[in-house]
Structures are given as structure tokens and as C-alpha cells.
């Protein structure tokens, strides 16, 4: 039943969050109490073009407009009125990658996403020069690789940004990035809150020797922390957001952020000794550090919270997509038996079965490698399910092995952090994988050896997190000294109940056995990459 328009909160006190994820573009509207009023979404898929993973800019705007339109439709359906304004807006997206533009704002080469692994030479040289880990997916690695390859677009390059930065600039005209997103472009100096000056100088020396006259610092967006006024929705931006002209310009936008930052916000994990795990197409863990790591390691990135505090990040290119694919197969099988079920029911049944499986996976192994995985040294991936002749193949063991496979590479990276003395009081988990109560949460606790907390925001994800950051920016307009950590703890999460699961002893021992087998079995994965060409079907093997 349509509610009266008066039941809709004052739109000037709402916040709209838009997040461009790997497979879905989502919009989330929250009220003054940070609860969700309406959502909208639009599915999209990456493409393999000339050997590189990309999304077209046309697909970006079709997705953004589709998600916002779906949200507006829901508001109109429930409240009898279509939104014309919001109190604030935030844009978030997949971090890293390469979006290079000329002076006129034209894209010079197709958007290169975080998923590409063609930057190994650049990343290695930059890591050695800077003395800090520069992952393959970081924007500076993409830029420097283009310089090493003497790509023809370089003489025309005038600016460089991320996907969130691109959308934000189109909406506001401001070439800025939130500090969390910027920390995946170039290393951030925690003392200054912006790009590390020493490393910029070192990079300038490298670039001058190969591409004289190219000033990298001039290409990069301005870095701003959470709570900053990052611009207002322009007339042109409003038309991009809503081609019908219903949404009016002039709305405040918060700094654009990456999905890692919005994950920290969505799980209230911006304080030291806290962290979060975000599981989607990729999977990554973020741990807020008390002090710098003792050594550099290729499995650990140093990024920041949306406020600029140092964070150790374990990022794995491959997350739950292969598990999703198997759920799809079981859904088709159920339909073939005349028992059609929706995807949530199938997924829930698989996860529930996983709890009945042997703690060590029963001799079964699952590799979710749809793409390359830098942590394990693989430039390409081949999804695999492997078992020994003596193992028992049943649904419970299969399901547990698949869930363990989602967490396998992450666990290898978290082991590095433990060896460096990083202590964690609690990890917060979010993403669709954790909507089925208690299953993935319990197995993740075993994989990382730490308590895992899940709240009612676990399935909300980044679109809700960036909406909260947008609401925070509006609050800071009148409360200048309001810290993000205090805002989250007192106003957003103060009355949210968390379900905390401690690691189970049998699961801990079982996962350790599984991980030893998983690490040894990586040779199988390498052999599969060498033996099996992706061929013309590579684009269809991507994120489903």
C-alpha cells in the first residue's frame, strides 16, 4: 500500500549513496537515523577488450541512472512522491585502476580495472624504489607501466583518477578523491594526509628519464578527508544523475571513496585494532594499524581509512563469484527436477550444508581463481575443484570446500599480518555472503583466527556506507570538530546489535589442515593456467 507523502522524512535530511561494484551498481537512500528508506540497483558486467578488463563509460552512466531511477521508483511507490533533492550525496566505487583523460575530458584508453595484472614490471620497480609495496592494481602502477610501454596516449594525458573520482567529477566538476580511495592511487603520508612527497619526488626522477616533461603530480586528484565539502551537484551533473530533470542541482557531495573505505564505515571498523572483511567479486580484509609494519610484503598494501589513518589491506582478486556460479548450477538442477527455487534459497541451502562438512574439507579442494591472484603469484586464474580418490564427495563437504576456497588466499595474507605482530580485537564482516546467519561468519573466524562480528548492516554494503559518509559530511557543516569514529560509534552504530562468533577449536584445526593442502595444491592451479587457454570464452568467465 502506498504510504502518505508526509511519512517520507524531510528529503533535505536524507543522504543518497551510490556505489559502483564489480557486478552491481547500487543506490541507497538513508534517513536522519541512518536507516534505509529505499534502494535501487543495476546489473553490469566487465568486458575483456584487447586483453584487459574494462567497463565502458556508457555502461557507467546507464548503471548509475538505472540504479537512481529504481530508487526513485521505490520512493514514489511507497510514499506517493518522487524525490527532487537530497541532503547530501556520496559516490563510491571499486578502487584502483586507470582512467586517463585529456584536457577536454575525453577518455584516452578504455578504463583499466583493478582486475588487470599486466603491471608486474612497473609494480616491482616502484616497490623497490619507494620501499613500500605497490600492488599491481594501484593506479600509479598502471600509469608507470604505460610509461614503460611508451603508450601512444601519454602525450595527451592531462588527468588521472579512479572510477569514483570520475563519476564525482562529472557530477560536481571537482577533481578530488577521498583519502581512502586516493591511497590506492599513490602512497599517502599519514602525517600530511596527502600523497607522500618523498615518493612523488622519486617517481618524478623515474618518469623524467623515460618521459621528459610529464609531471605525474599534476595529473593526480586533490586528496580530501571524510567530512569535507567536496562540491555541489551541478546542472550538468544533475542531468547525468537523472535525465528526467526531477532531481535538482545544488546538493552537497562528500569526498568520493573506494569500496574499501565504505566497507570500513559500513562495519564501524575505523578504530585501531579493528578491521573488516568485505566479500563480493573480490574479497579483502582491512586492519587499522597501531603502528607501521616492520617489513614490506607483497601480500600487504598500506592504505587508509576515510579519515586518513593507516590500514593494512589484504586484497584478493577472487572472492565469491565461483561459489555464486555453483549456486546457479544447483538452482538449475532444482528447476530441472520441478522444484524451482530463488537464488537466495539455493545459496542459503549450500551455506547451511557447509556446516555439516568435515572441518578440514574432507580432502576436497576448491580454487575460486577466475582471474589472476598476485598474493599467490598467478597472473591468470582457472577455477578448479579437486579431490583425492579416497575423499568423500557429498554436498556438505563440497559446500564447505567452496566456502573455504573463498577464504583461502585471504587467510594466507592474514597469516603474514599475524607474523608481523598485528593484533585484532574483532573483525566485522559484510557483503551478501554473510546474509545467511552464522555460516560464512563461523568459517571466516576459523580462517583468520579471530572473532568475527556481523550486524544488520552486513548485507547493506558500500552503498549504505557511502550514504553514511554523505550524511557525515552534512553533519560536519555545523559540527566542525566531529570525528568520524565518534559519529559512527555514537550516532550510527550505538543501538545496533552485533552477533559475534568466536573461532571454534575444531574449525580452527580443520581449516589449518585445509590451508596447508590448499597452499600445496597451488601447483595444480599453476599447471592449469599453463595447460588451459581461456580462448574466446574469457569474457564470459568473468564476474557473474
Automatic annotation (TrEMBL):
SUPFAM superfamilies: Actin-like ATPase domain. Keywords: Carbohydrate metabolism, Kinase, Transferase, Xylose metabolism. InterPro entries: ATPase_NBD, FGGY_C, FGGY_Carb_Kinase, FGGY_N. Gene3D superfamilies: 3.30.420.40. Residues 15-240 form the Carbohydrate kinase FGGY N-terminal domain. Residues 276-473 form the Carbohydrate kinase FGGY C-terminal domain. Belongs to the FGGY kinase family. This is ATPase. It comes from Nocardioides luteus.
Amino acid at each position: 500500500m502506498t504510504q502518505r507523502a508526509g511519512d517520507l522524512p524531510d528529503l533535505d535530511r536524507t543522504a543518497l549513496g551510490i556505489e559502483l561494484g564489480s557486478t552491481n551498481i547500487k543506490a541507497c537512500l538513508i534517513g536522519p537515523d541512518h536507516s534505509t528508506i529505499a534502494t535501487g540497483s543495476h546489473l553490469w558486467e566487465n568486458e575483456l577488450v584487447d586483453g584487459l578488463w574494462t567497463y565502458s563509460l556508457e555502461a557507467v552512466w546507464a548503471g548509475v541512472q538505472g540504479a537512481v531511477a529504481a530508487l526513485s521508483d521505490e520512493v514514489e511507490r511507497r510514499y506517493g512522491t518522487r524525490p527532487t533533492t537530497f541532503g547530501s550525496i556520496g559516490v563510491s566505487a571499486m578502487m584502483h585502476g586507470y582512467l586517463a583523460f585529456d584536457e577536454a575530458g575525453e577518455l584516452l584508453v578504455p578504463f583499466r580495472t583493478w582486475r588487470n595484472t599486466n603491471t608486474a614490471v612497473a609494480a616491482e620497480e616502484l616497490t623497490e624504489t619507494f620501499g613500500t609495496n605497490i600492488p599491481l592494481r594501484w593506479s600509479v602502477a598502471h600509469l608507470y607501466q604505460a610509461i614503460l610501454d611508451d603508450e601512444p596516449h601519454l602525450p595527451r594525458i592531462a588527468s588521472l583518477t579512479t572510477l569514483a573520482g570520475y563519476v564525482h567529477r562529472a557530477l560536481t566538476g571537482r577533481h578530488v578523491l577521498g583519502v581512502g580511495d586516493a591511497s590506492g592511487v599513490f602512497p599517502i603520508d599519514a602525517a600530511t594526509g596527502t600523497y607522500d612527497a618523498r615518493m612523488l619526488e622519486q617517481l618524478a626522477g623515474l618518469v623524467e628519464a623515460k618521459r621528459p616533461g610529464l609531471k605525474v603530480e599534476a595529473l593526480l586528484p586533490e586528496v580530501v578527508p571524510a567530512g569535507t565539502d567536496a562540491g555541489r551537484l551541478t546542472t550538468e551533473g544533475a542531468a547525468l544523475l537523472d535525465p528526467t530533470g526531477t532531481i535538482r542541482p545544488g546538493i552537497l557531495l562528500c569526498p568520493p571513496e573506494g569500496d574499501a573505505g565504505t566497507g570500513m564505515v559500513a562495519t564501524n571498523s575505523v578504530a585501531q585494532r579493528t578491521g573488516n572483511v568485505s566479500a563480493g567479486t573480490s574479497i579483502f580484509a582491512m586492519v587499522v594499524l597501531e603502528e607501521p609494519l616492520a617489513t614490506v610484503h607483497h601480500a600487504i598494501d598500506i592504505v587508509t581509512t576515510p579519515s586518513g589513518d593507516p590500514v593494512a589491506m589484504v586484497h584478493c582478486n577472487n572472492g565469491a563469484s565461483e561459489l555464486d556460479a555453483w549456486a546457479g548450477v544447483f538452482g538449475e538442477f532444482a528447476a530441472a527436477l520441478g522444484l524451482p527455487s530463488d537464488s537466495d534459497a539455493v545459496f542459503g541451502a549450500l551455506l547451511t550444508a557447509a556446516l555439516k562438512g568435515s572441518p578440514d574439507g574432507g580432502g576436497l579442494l576448491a580454487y575460486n581463481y577466475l582471474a589472476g591472484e598476485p598474493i599467490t603469484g598467478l597472473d591468470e586464474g582457472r577455477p578448479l575443484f579437486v579431490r583425492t580418490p579416497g575423499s568423500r564427495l557429498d554436498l556438505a563437504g563440497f559446500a564447505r570446500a567452496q566456502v573455504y576456497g573463498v577464504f583461502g588466499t585471504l587467510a594466507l595474507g592474514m597469516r603474514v599480518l599475524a607474523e608481523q605482530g598485528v593484533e585484532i580485537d574483532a573483525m566485522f564482516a559484510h557483503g551478501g555472503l554473510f546474509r545467511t546467519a552464522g555460516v560464512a561468519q563461523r568459517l571466516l573466524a576459523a580462517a583468520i583466527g579471530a572473532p568475527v562480528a556481523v550486524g544488520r548492516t552486513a548485507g547493506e554494503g558500500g552503498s549504505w556506507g557511502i550514504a553514511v559518509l554523505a550524511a557525515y559530511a552534512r553533519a560536519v557543516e555545523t559540527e566542525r570538530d566531529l570525528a568520524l569514529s565518534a559519529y559512527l560509534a555514537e550516532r550510527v552504530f550505538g543501538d545496533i546489535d552485533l552477533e559475534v562468533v568466536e573461532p571454534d577449536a575444531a574449525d580452527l584445526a580443520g581449516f589449518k589442515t585445509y590451508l596447508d593442502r590448499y597452499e600445496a595444491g597451488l601447483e595444480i592451479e599453476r599447471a592449469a593456467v599453463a595447460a588451459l587457454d581461456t580462448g574466446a570464452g574469457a569474457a564470459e568467465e568473468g564476474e557473474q
